[in-house]
Amino acid sequence: MNNPAELDIDSILKCLPHRYPFLLVDRVTEIDLEAGRILGVKNVTYNEPFFQGHFPGNPIMPGVLIIEALAQIGGILMFQKGYPQLKVLASIRNAKFRRLVRPGDVLQLEAWEIHLSARGGKVKGEARVNNEKAAEGEIVFGMISEKPPKVPEQ
After folding, report:
1. Would you kindly state where each structural domain of the chain is located, as residue ranges?
2. N or C: which end of the chain has fewer CB within 10 A?
């Protein structure tokens, strides 16, 4: 399998089922498939929909969304390693939040493969702003091959 150096937003959209406002990875800057490591970026802007309600006047990116961004970067790594199935979050372990993330910050996302199989996987992720750790945790995924049922139209 090739080892792409970067992924733009069009390539990311092929790897993840997420779309606005839940797509939290803007660019992948480095992938090392042999080492099981990936780096990506989320540009945090004041226009994010969650800032309207998350401490108006003192906007802070919710920690759970930082962990979700790490889960998404881990999902991209699994996709690039040849696992195209739908990845669903199974658990978050050892999550720690170390610094506030605010509009204007560039969230640097890094994940390392801990375990990967056809049934699921586990990655360790770190999010940084200006090389200062903002959050970290271990994310466990389950993989499902079938499509979820369609919701009937109302």
Report:
1. 9-144
2. C
